[in-house]
C-alpha cells in the first residue's frame, strides 16, 4: 500500500513512546549547542524517525492554526519559527546522506520519502486556518509596531504562502499538491540517474602513452581509480569534472580527449536506463502546468516574483548584453588556437574536446604561464589556511580544529569558529574535500543548523563539500587555479552563514533571494589573487617557498584570459534554462530544443554548455535554480561592483571600513532587509554591469 501522511501518523502513534531509541530523534548534544551524531545513524533509522518527526510537526502546526486566541506575532509567527525542530534535524541528516554518501539502499528510501515530504509541504501551504492567521498578522495594527526584522519575517511568511497557492480554490490546491508530489519523485529519479552515469562510466587508459602530458596527481588518481574499480587496466578517467577538465587540458591524445569529453557531456543522454530526457521533459511540463494554476503565464514568471530580477525579461537583457562581447572574445581566442594547430601540422578545426588543450598552449605562448607551474604552489591545505586568514582579516573570525566531533566519513574534518580576541563561539565548519562513490559531483555549501536567537544564542553549523582527487598519504593535494577559485567561492557561502547575526531562523544566513545568494561567495573569490594571500599561503609543495612575484605578475597579466570561454559556457546554460521555463506548455524535446536554441544564439561550435540539458542538475534535481541559473551572472555584476568599493579604498582589499560595511549590510543581515536596500547601504548606489565587463576584459 502506498504510504501517506495518514499512515505515518498512525504508525508514529505506536512508536513515539520509543522515540529516544532512535538516534535520529535524539537532541543533538555537545558543547557547540549540539552536533549530528553521525557515528550512531543507520539508514534503517530514517523511516521511523520521519514517522515520529512528521507527526510532531503536524501536531504543532495544528495547535498554531487552531489557537482560539487572536493571531499575534508571538502566538503565530514566532511559534511557526519554533515548530518541528526534530523534523528539521532529521531532514538535515537525510539531505547530507543524499548528497555525500548515497547508496542503493538510501536511493530506495528517497523514492519512498520524497513524495511524503512534498505532500507535507503542500499541506502546510494549503492550511487555510494557518494562512488566515498569518494574513491577519500581516494586515493588523500590530504590524506597524513591530521591528523592521519582525515586519520582514511576517512579510516573508505571507509572501511564501501566497506564492505557493494559499489563496487558490480547493480544486486548484489539489492540483498543485498532486504536481508537487509527482515532481518530488521525478527530481529523485533525475538525480539518481545522473549519479549512476557519473559513478558507472569511465574511460580506460590501456598503455603508458595514454598518460602522456598528464600532471602527476591525475596519473596517480587514474591508477587509483582503476584499482578501486577492480579493472585490469593501467588507469581510468572517472566521469567527474575533477578528472575530465585536467585530462582535456593536458592530454595530447586527441582521440582519447574526444572519448573523455563525450563520456562527460553525454551524462544522462545515452538512451539507456539512466537517460534523463523523458524525466526532465515531464518536469518542465508539470512546472508549466503548476504556474498556470497559480495564475502565471510561465514557470519563469512565477519563480522570479521574489527574486531581485523580478521578471525574466530583466535577466535576458543582462545575459544578452554580456553574450555578444563574450562570443566575440571566443572567436579571437579560437583564431589564436587555430594558428597553433596549423603550426603543428594539424588539418582539423578546433572541436570542443580540443578547446582546453589549445587554450593552455595559447596561455603558455602568450603569457608564458603554465597551469601546472601555478599548481605546484596551490596546496589544498595551505589554501584552506589562507581562507581562514582572510576570514580573520575581514570579519574577525578564527578557526581551530575541533576534537571529538562525529563525522559521516573519515575524510571530513571539523573546525571551531570563534571571534578574534573574545573567543566567543560562532559555530562549526565541516570540510569534506574529496571525491568518492556515492557523492554528487561539484562543490557546495550546506547549513546543518542556522544561527538564531529566539531560544537563546543558537550557534550555526555549516559545511563546505568539494570533489578534489585525493592524494597519496603524506603527499599534499595540488589543485588548479580554477579549483582554488571555487574553493574560495564556496567558503564565501560558508562565511555568509557563519557571520549571520539575526533573531529568527527563517531570515538567517544564506536565506536570501536566489540571485543575491551568490554575491557573498563570488566576491570572496577576489581575495585569492591578493598578494597577501599568495605570499603567505601559495607555497611550493617541495620547497615551501612563496610563489615568486614574476609568476604572480604573469597570473595578473593573464587574469582575463579565457574569460570568453567561461562566460559563454555559463551564459549559454543560463539562457537555455530561462528559455526552457518560458516555453510554457510546449512539449520539450531536449535534444531539439538545445540544438535550435544554441543555433539562434550563434553558439560557437568549439564550446558546449557548461551543463547540457540532460545533466543540468541545478534545474532538474529540485526547483532550487530552475529559471534561476542566471543568478551567477546577476550576482557577479553585484560582486564586480562591490569589488570596486575595496579598490577605491585606501586599504584596498583589506580596508577595515569597507570590510565592516560588507559585514554590517551583507554578510551578517541575512534576509532581515531587502537585498537591494542592503546593497545600497553598503555601496551607496545600485550596481551596474560596467565593472563586470571590465573585470572580464570585455569591450562594450
From TrEMBL:
- PANTHER family (UniProt xref): DIPEPTIDYL CARBOXYPEPTIDASE (PTHR43660)
Question: Would you identify the family this protein belongs to, as annotated?
Answer: Belongs to the peptidase M3 family.
Q: What is this protein called?
A: M3 family metallopeptidase
* Organism of this sequence: Flavobacterium hankyongi
Q: Which domain of life is it from?
A: Bacteria
Arranged from A to Z, the UniProt key words for this protein are: Hydrolase, Metal-binding, Metalloprotease, Protease, Zinc
**Any matching Pfam family:** Peptidase_M3
**Domain Peptidase M3A/M3B catalytic, which positions?**
248-697
For this chain's record, the cofactor binding note is:
Binds 1 zinc ion.
Q: Does the keyword Hydrolase apply?
A: yes
**Cofactor(s) the protein needs:** Zn(2+)
Amino acid at each position: 500500500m502506498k504510504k501517506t501522511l495518514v499512515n505515518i501518523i498512525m504508525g508514529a502513534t505506536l512508536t513515539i513512546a520509543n522515540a529516544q531509541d532512535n538516534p535520529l530523534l535524539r537532541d543533538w548534544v555537545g558543547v557547540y549547542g549540539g552536533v549530528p551524531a553521525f557515528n550512531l545513524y543507520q539508514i534503517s533509522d530514517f523511516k521511523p524517525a520521519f514517522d515520529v518527526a512528521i507527526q510532531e510537526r503536524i501536531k504543532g502546526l495544528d495547535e498554531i492554526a487552531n489557537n482560539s486566541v487572536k493571531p499575534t506575532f508571538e502566538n503565530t509567527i514566532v511559534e511557526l519559527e519554533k515548530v518541528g525542530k526534530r523534523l528539521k534535524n532529521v531532514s538535515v541528516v537525510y539531505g547530507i546522506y543524499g548528497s555525500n554518501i548515497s547508496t542503493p539502499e538510501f536511493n530506495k528510501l528517497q523514492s519512498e520519502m520524497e513524495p511524503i515530504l512534498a505532500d507535507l509541504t503542500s499541506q502546510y501551504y494549503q492550511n487555510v486556518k494557518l494562512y488566515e492567521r498569518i494574513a491577519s498578522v500581516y494586515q493588523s495594527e500590530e504590524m506597524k509596531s513591530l521591528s523592521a526584522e519582525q515586519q520582514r519575517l511576517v512579510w516573508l511568511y505571507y509572501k511564501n504562502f501566497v506564492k505557493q497557492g494559499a489563496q487558490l480554490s480547493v480544486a486548484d490546491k489539489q492540483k498543485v499538491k498532486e504536481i508537487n508530489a509527482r515532481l518530488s519523485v521525478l527530481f529523485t529519479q533525475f538525480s539518481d540517474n545522473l549519479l549512476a552515469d557519473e559513478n558507472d562510466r569511465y574511460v580506460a587508459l590501456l598503455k603508458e602513452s595514454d598518460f602522456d602530458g598528464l600532471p602527476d596527481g591525475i596519473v596517480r588518481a587514474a591508477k587509483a581509480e582503476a584499482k578501486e574499480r577492480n579493472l585490469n587496466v593501467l588507469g581510468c578517467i572517472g566521469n567527474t569534472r575533477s578528472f575530465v577538465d585536467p585530462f582535456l587540458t593536458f592530454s595530447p591524445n586527441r582521440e582519447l580527449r574526444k572519448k573523455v569529453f563525450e563520456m562527460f557531456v553525454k551524462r544522462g543522454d545515452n538512451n539507456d536506463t539512466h537517460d534523463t530526457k523523458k524525466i526532465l521533459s515531464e518536469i518542465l511540463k508539470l512546472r508549466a502546468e503548476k504556474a498556470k494554476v497559480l495564475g502565471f503565464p510561465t514557470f519563469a514568471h512565477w519563480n522570479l516574483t521574489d527574486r531581485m530580477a523580478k521578471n525574466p525579461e530583466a535577466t535576458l537583457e543582462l545575459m544578452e548584453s554580456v553574450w555578444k562581447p563574450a562570443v566575440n572574445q571566443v572567436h579571437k581566442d579560437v583564431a589564436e588556437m587555430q594558428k597553433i594547430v596549423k603550426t603543428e601540422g594539424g588539418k582539423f578545426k578546433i572541436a570542443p574536446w580540443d578547446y582546453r588543450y589549445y587554450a593552455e598552449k595559447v596561455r603558455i605562448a602568450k603569457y608564458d604561464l603554465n597551469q601546472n607551474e601555478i599548481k605546484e604552489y596551490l596546496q589544498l591545505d595551505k589554501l584552506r589556511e589562507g581562507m581562514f586568514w582572510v576570514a580573520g582579516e575581514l570579519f574577525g573570525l578564527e578557526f581551530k580544529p575541533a576534537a571529538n566531533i562525529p563525522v559521516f566519513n573519515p575524510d571530513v574534518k571539523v573546525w571551531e569558529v570563534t571571534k578574534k580576541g573574545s573567543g566567543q563561539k560562532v559555530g562549526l565548519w565541516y570540510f569534506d574535500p574529496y571525491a568518492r562513490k556515492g557523492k554528487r559531483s561539484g562543490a557546495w555549501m550546506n547549513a546543518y543548523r542556522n544561527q538564531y536567537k529566539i531560544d537563546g544564542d543558537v550557534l550555526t553549523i555549516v559545511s563546505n563539500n568539494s570533489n578534489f582527487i585525493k592524494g597519496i598519504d603524506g603527499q599534499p593535494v595540488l589543485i588548479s587555479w580554477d579549483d582554488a577559485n571555487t574553493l574560495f567561492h564556496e567558503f564565501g557561502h560558508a562565511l555568509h552563514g557563519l557571520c549571520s547575526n539575526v533573531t529568527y531562523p527563517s531570515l538567517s544566513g544564506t536565506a536570501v533571494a536566489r540571485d543575491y545568494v551568490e554575491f557573498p561567495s563570488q566576491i570572496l573569490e577576489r581575495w585569492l589573487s591578493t598578494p597577501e594571500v599568495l605570499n603567505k599561503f601559495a607555497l611550493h609543495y617541495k620547497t615551501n617557498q612563496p610563489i615568486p612575484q614574476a609568476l604572480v605578475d604573469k597570473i595578473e597579466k593573464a587574469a582575463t584570459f579565457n574569460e570568453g570561454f567561461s562566460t559563454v559556457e555559463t551564459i549559454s546554460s543560463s539562457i537555455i534554462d530561462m528559455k526552457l521555463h518560458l516555453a510554457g506548455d510546449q512539449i520539450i524535446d531536449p535534444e531539439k530544443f538545445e540544438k535550435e536554441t544554441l543555433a539562434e544564439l550563434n553558439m560557437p561550435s568549439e564550446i558546449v554548455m557548461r551543463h547540457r540539458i540532460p545533466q543540468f542538475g541545478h534545474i532538474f534535481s529540485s526547483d532550487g535554480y530552475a529559471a534561476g541559473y542566471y543568478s551567477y551572472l546577476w550576482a557577479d555584476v553585484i560582486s564586480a561592483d562591490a569589488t570596486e568599493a575595496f579598490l577605491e579604498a585606501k586599504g584596498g582589499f583589506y580596508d577595515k571600513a569597507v570590510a565592516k560595511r560588507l559585514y554590517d549590510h551583507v554578510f551578517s543581515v541575512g534576509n532581515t532587509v531587502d537585498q537591494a536596500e542592503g546593497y545600497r547601504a553598503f555601496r551607496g548606489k545600485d550596481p551596474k554591469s560596467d565593472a563586470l565587463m571590465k573585470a572580464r576584459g570585455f569591450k562594450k
